[in-house]
Design goal:
Length: about 140
């Protein structure tokens, strides 16, 4: 619990820790190294957001980085929607179809976003499989 409080205060700049934690109590059980830090780094460096967005939407830390956060921001980028015009709350609070419809403005019930996610998944699997050495591939069979 203490490492999380220190991380929120020292790295994220959260001043009112009590208010932050009362809005999202599970954060106290998260791993700083495995969950909080990677999400914070993504938010600050890739999306150029920081303290203000996290304080407004502490539940950001509850969303899976690789399965929800990164794909949605990649989709916004693919659709040429500047990150600055959409809050992290808007990007994350909806299910996939509503995200595509409400936030991005797709008019296909989320089909295009679903295809985007599937293509992304295939690329990741292909990349992982290409990174396996021949001896690793043999051991996995």
């Amino acid at each position: 619990m203490i490492p999380v409080v220190e991380f929120l205060r020292d790295s994220c700049g959260v001043i009112n820790i009590g208010r932050f934690v009362s809005r999202f109590p599970p954060v106290l059980g998260y791993s700083v190294k495995d969950e909080l830090l990677p999400k914070w780094q993504f938010l600050c460096k890739v999306c150029d957001f920081g303290y203000f967005e996290v304080v407004r939407f502490p539940a950001y830390f509850s969303y899976p980085l690789d399965k929800v956060i990164i794909p949605r921001y990649e989709y916004l980028k693919a659709k040429s929607i500047p990150f600055e015009v959409v809050t992290i709350d808007e990007v994350l609070r909806y299910g996939d179809a509503d995200f595509a419809r409400i936030v991005v403005g797709d008019e296909d019930g989320g089909d295009l976003f679903s295809r985007f996610l599937e293509e992304r998944r295939k690329k990741i699997l292909k990349k992982k499989s290409a990174n396996l050495t021949p001896s690793n591939k043999q051991n996995r069979v």
